[in-house]
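Need tokens for this chain, all 440 residues.
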Amino acid sequence: MLDRILYIDPGTGSMLFSIIIGIAGVLIFAGHALIIKLKFFFLGGRAKNDNSDKLSICIFSEGKRYWHVFKPVLEEFEKRGRDIHYLTASPDDPALSAGFKHVLAEFIGEGNKGISKMNFIKADIVVSTTPSLDVFQWKRSKGAKYYVHLPHMPNDITTYKMFGLDFYDAVLVSGEYQKEQIRRLESLRSIPEKEVVLAGIPYLDAMKKRLDASASFSDAKKEKTILLAPSWGNNGILTAYDGKSFIESLIKTGYKVIIRPHPQSFTSEKELIEGLMKQFPESDKLKWNRDPDNFDVLNEADILISDFSGVLFDFSLVFNKPVIYTEPSNDWSQYDVAWDPEELWTYRILPRIGRKLTSENFSNIASLVDDCLEGETAKELAEGRDLAREQTWCNMGHGAEKVADYIIKKHDELAKTEAQKAAKDKSSENRRKSRKTIFA
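Here are the structure tokens for all 440 residues:
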């Protein structure tokens, strides 16, 4: 009974947390203002704003799973010898042990503890891939001047939760259609236009560079390989299509099969995954993959089967291979896409780079796989991949450079504006003192 009384649902918890953070923010900044006034009263003269702990540029990562997104950008700053702070909510984030000289990595606490610190950060520029700034727990800090969003996916920017990017100052996109989506939302909501810059996709550039330097599996191996990479939840393939029957169908193709469940499945669907692993033990034709890094398994596969997941684009755009995807059954009512009258780019491009898995063709998966890998369909899908890269991967190979260029340029602009304001304030103060002297 007590646990029911004390239970708080996630939505209410988020609201209460936001209220607490808001109250704490008011108290902290009110206290800071009081201290400045006391210094002015007791020490005399004009109180100075203390910016000794202010960061120039910082990146906030809510977890190590976004390390691959930020790594190329951090390496670019390191190469240029430009200092940047990297604040992470993961105690084992790879950045903490990367040995950088100019990237100052710091663990700021997990979950809400890390978010709380970011709510009071003092910085010129804050860069993050986390949406919903100033919507849920994460609030814009009064001590931060400019917020920049770096997407972690090469597709629709409107698939974030509603108002996901509204309170950012700038967004670094990779396709013109993403910019158009942002502009439509701004117009529909009557909010000021933010800066939208065509930068690129640094993590895909890094993956492509790694692929170009690696040995090709296609020439070395004799058998075709299917990679099954389901997400977790009710819409995941292993749930929606009966995991046992689906795996049996894949084995019957005669091809080698690699199954790589979503990491969250081992927690949220532990019974399902462990049951399937027991029913289908590893053999020469079947492998279960849990590598932290998915590069090798993507490189080895000839075709990827997944649901509505970003890995479809990583595999298709970088490794230049076909995909099979499930019918998306997402409820978009709580997402930005619900506001956009235009069809998702993802919906338009998926039929060009792969084939859809349906209840009708599910039982004939072998023919579907063969169709994607051979003949006219294979040629058609290759042309579709070229189109997708053209539309969603600008500045290919130079994404990290473009991101660093923008951030540094913006920081210098902010610094110049601040210096001009300080000079103007000083001039006004000197004139005020001069007038006091004259009339003394």
